[in-house]
Amino acid sequence: MPIYEYRCDSCGHELEAMQKMSDPVLTDCPGCAKPGLKKLISVAGFRLKGGGWYETDFKGGSKRSTEESGTQSPAPACGTGACPACQ
Hints:
Elements: E1 3-8, E2 14-18, E3 37-39, H1 66-69
């Protein structure tokens, strides 16, 4: 579920709200109770639920996992130097 940021034009109060994309935009400020909230444009925030993403989660009938075949897949590198795989 996306996390949206809002700021009140009246009092400057800022908040984050976890909402479905189909939920209506918030308008009433919890700080001053005036209808001055505006949705901010920011970096997308989201939460991944579950135990994680593994190749065995999507295993097909004839495909073998790397553990069964005895080989390891190389770690993908993003090339920016920001992630451990690139350093």
